[in-house]
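User: tokens in, sequence out, please.
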């Protein structure tokens, strides 16, 4: 098996080798190369100590020197070079209390999480695969190196990583590895929200967001996302749905592009349904008010998982308006765009389509046609550059002050009245007509 090493990676490995040390590309870059994927990073492992690495390369950064890692700078690129090590006891289920450097490559490889990440390569010796990583890749299996209970006890985040790799690669999780996740899922409580968020996002934007099933079935969601467990336990007994709330949300994610805001929106768009559920006298389920409730709950969940404010704002707005259905005529659509917020378009149409495609066939074609018509009105309005916000009005507060208005509230109310008028009659958005409208109001008063 031959891997084409980038020139700078080859240079670092060759430099270490010529100095008498062992050196290999290791981990994810080897895995991705063998899968025909382009590695995001190239990591190097070596028998050289951090001090010896620093002596060989003129530009280095001590990024994790206590754990044996030195970053070597070559041009504008950086490469982590880590000394072979044996991890000590994991006291926080995330980091070893101490590490011991070793000259034995296999000792270093056996501390790694999964067999597909425990392979090393250089051009002299080729592939070093002591734990069956190549065979597992051929079988499309995620399997821990050694005892999975030990690996997950050392680092509880590895349980999320197992599911994330399954989603990204389309691999199944080995039976024993999956059983250990279910056994040790409660230990995820020791992992920071930021690290959980990173793994969750990679899962959600992958080609297989349906691996949220595994997050639920293994008990991981119970630790960091109990609202999803409630969704998975909430049926939707009405003619519009064929899945429970959680299943519907997963299918909706599969029907929208793999962009973080869109996938998060579909995951959470119905999160308010379990608490909004009501049952009528015929046994039909209703979820009145769930968009507003869902937006509120989603805000709390995303904050808990340490998402940035912009992502929270965009996701919660799309959730709040995902079920909004304006009358499909131009003035109503203009008012809807103003009400919802111009920044939510055209993403809102993708959300509506994904939501519809995750329901049953009842009136589906009709609903998709209505979304198409809504979007056609939107594009027509945008092409005409019609007024949709206060800043698009042909006059502003200074103009109204020139007409004798002095109070801020009075000016704000007048501008809003003019905007409502222009949303209904866009051709009136000229300075002359709007000033005449204000003058007419003043005469009436």
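Assistant: Sequence out:
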């Amino acid at each position: 098996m031959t891997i084409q090493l980038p020139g700078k990676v080859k240079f670092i490995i060759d430099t270490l080798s010529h100095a008498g040390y062992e050196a290999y590309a290791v981990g994810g870059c080897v895995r991705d190369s063998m899968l025909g994927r382009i590695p995001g990073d190239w990591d190097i492992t070596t028998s050289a100590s951090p001090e010896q690495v620093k002596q060989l390369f003129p530009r280095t950064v001590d990024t994790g020197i206590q754990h044996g890692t030195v970053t070597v700078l070559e041009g504008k690129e950086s490469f982590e070079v880590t000394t072979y090590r044996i991890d000590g006891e994991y006291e926080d289920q995330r980091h070893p209390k101490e590490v011991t450097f070793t000259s034995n490559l296999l000792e270093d490889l056996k501390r790694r999480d999964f067999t597909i990440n425990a392979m090393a390569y250089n051009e002299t010796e080729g592939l070093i695969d002591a734990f069956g990583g190549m065979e597992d890749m051929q079988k499309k299996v995620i399997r821990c190196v050694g005892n999975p209970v030990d690996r997950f006890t050392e680092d509880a985040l590895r349980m999320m990583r197992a599911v994330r790799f399954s989603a990204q690669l389309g691999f199944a999780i080995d039976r024993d590895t999956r059983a250990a996740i279910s056994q040790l899922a409660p230990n995820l409580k020791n992992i920071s929200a930021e690290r959980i968020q990173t793994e969750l996002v990679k899962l959600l934007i992958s080609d297989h967001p349906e691996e949220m099933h595994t997050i639920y079935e293994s008990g991981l969601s119970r630790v960091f996302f109990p609202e999803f467990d409630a969704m998975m336990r909430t049926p939707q007994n009405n003619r519009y749905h064929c899945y429970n709330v959680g299943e519907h949300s997963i299918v909706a994610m599969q029907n929208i592009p793999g962009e973080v805001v869109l996938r998060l929106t579909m995951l959470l768009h119905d999160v308010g349904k379990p608490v909004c559920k009501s049952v009528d006298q015929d046994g039909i389920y209703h979820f009145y008010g769930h968009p507003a409730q869902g937006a509120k709950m989603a805000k709390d969940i995303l904050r808990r998982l340490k998402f940035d404010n912009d992502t929270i704002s965009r996701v919660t707005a799309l959730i709040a308006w995902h079920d909004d259905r304006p009358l499909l005529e131009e003035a109503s659509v203009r008012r809807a765009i103003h009400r919802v917020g111009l920044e939510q378009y055209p993403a809102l149409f993708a959300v509506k389509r994904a939501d519809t495609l995750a329901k049953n066939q009842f009136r589906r074609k009709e609903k998709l046609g209505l979304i198409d018509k809504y979007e056609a009105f939107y594009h027509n309005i945008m092409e005409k550059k019609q007024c949709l916000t206060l800043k698009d009005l042909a006059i502003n507060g200074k103009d109204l002050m020139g007409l004798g208005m002095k109070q801020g509230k009075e000016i704000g109310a007048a501008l809003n009245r003019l905007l409502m008028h222009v949303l209904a009659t866009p051709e009136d958005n000229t300075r002359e007509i709007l000033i005449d409208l204000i003058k007419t109001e003043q005469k009436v008063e």
